[in-house]
């Protein structure tokens, strides 16, 4: 992950500027391994990114690659908690980076320089457009935005995770996913979602077994790829004429074992138990 280390303004070198040429600066980025990356950029380009990244941005779309063989076709950056998550799209894959809000400027500089020509960004009130010509001319515009893309307006809505942020869950603290106060560690959001997805699958299995206890033959069907949504399990149930008591005990034992193992108490299990159905 590259971070902004330093910018040298003005005439740091010996070469003369051509008439009409913008003043260039030397940008130095550094990563966690101590490696450095340097490049020249004109002052307008640097000023535009500084101004853009100073806003409380919720979503950023970096697009319009300069070359057809560019590694990434677009980059989508979204606000996640106190930091950001970047999704870098190739032709067939997507790669994720997590970083703090203080590193947004460095991330944008490294991602955009000599690679992309357009950036669209949104905060809660405005939409920003950064356009870069192939000759290096830079234009930054801002306009009032009544309605940003869905992913921007949705980010503030609390997602209903089974294991929710704010709970102090000792195993997740031990794994480094939660802090001691129950907050998700910024770099562990992907793992946090994966664990919740796994628990959702366990919850579906419990509901299917409860239906089996009540005399139904069930099937769990995946009808939407996990890439699009984790809420993708359809339970199909067909009433059986007779369910042996031994089978009912078997399904119920599996439910109780899963509830005990994962500290779950599904609503359906509570309702059926109160009605003496299980």
Describe the 3D structure.
This protein is of the alpha+beta class. It contains 7 helices and 12 strands. The strands form 3 sheets. A 7-stranded antiparallel beta sheet has the order 7-6-5-4-8-9-10, with helices on one face. A 3-stranded antiparallel beta sheet has the order 1-2-3. A hairpin with a 3-residue loop joins strand 8 (116-122) and strand 9. The longest helix is centred in the C-terminal third of the chain and has 25 residues, at 189-213. It starts with a strand and ends with a helix. The model is unreliable at 150-157 and 224-230 (pLDDT under 50).
Task: Summarize, please.
This protein has 278 residues and is α+β, with helices and mostly antiparallel strands. Helix content is 29%, strand content 30%.
Poorly predicted spans: 150-157, 224-230
Instruction: From the alpha carbons, calculate the radius of gyration and give it in angstroms.
Output: 26 Å
Give a short account of the largest sheet.
Answer: 7 strands, antiparallel
Strand content: 25-35%
SSE order, as H and E?
A: EEEHEEEEHEEEHHHEEHH
Shape: elongated
Counted beta strands = 12
Q: Enumerate how many helices there are, as a single number.
A: 7
Helix content percent band? 25-40%
**What's the average pLDDT?**
81
Identify the strand order in the major beta sheet.
Answer: 7-6-5-4-8-9-10
User: Strand pairing plus helix content: what structural class?
Assistant: alpha+beta
Through-space gap between termini: 53 Å
Task: Spell out the key features of this protein.
278 residues, alpha+beta, seven-stranded antiparallel sheet, 12 strands, 29% helix
